[in-house]
Amino acid sequence: MPKVALDSETFGRFAEGVASFMGTAQFLVWMTVFVVLWVAFNVIGLFGFRWDPYPFILLNLFFSTQASYSAPLILLAQNRQERRDQLSLEEDRRIAAQSRADMDFLAREIASIRMHLGDLATRDFVRGELRSELRELGDRLTQAEEKTT
Fold first, then answer.
1. What string of DSSP letters covers 36-70?
2. pLDDT (tens digit, 9 = 90+) per residue, 23-52?
């Protein structure tokens, strides 16, 4: 028996397209129209067509065939989606781990900066020291003026 070579990616996209279409209202409307016309032609005999009389064995065969093909196509589409979801989850985990490592690094850097800031003079401290020195200079000037007068 000859081996049939199929591109799994192309067939997978086809399966996803079929599964996607079968999950739409448009598919349900078209199937309803198809069944109504089938029954109408075969019960009423519109235009002289009556190829599948009641109980519509051929229609049942058609639906059985459709189900036997659609179920595996839907499962194939779900499996592909599950693989994509798994890859996405792994990527999310990798990004979360990298973000966590970055946050830990930044937290250590901030802690280091805070420790070093304790050794530095703050703006308020420098202002206070300058005001104190200005007051002392002002007092010395006042004392010097009093001595000269």
1. HHHHHHHHT-GGG--SS-TTTHHHHHHHHHHHHHH
2. 899 999 999 999 999 998 888 877 777 888
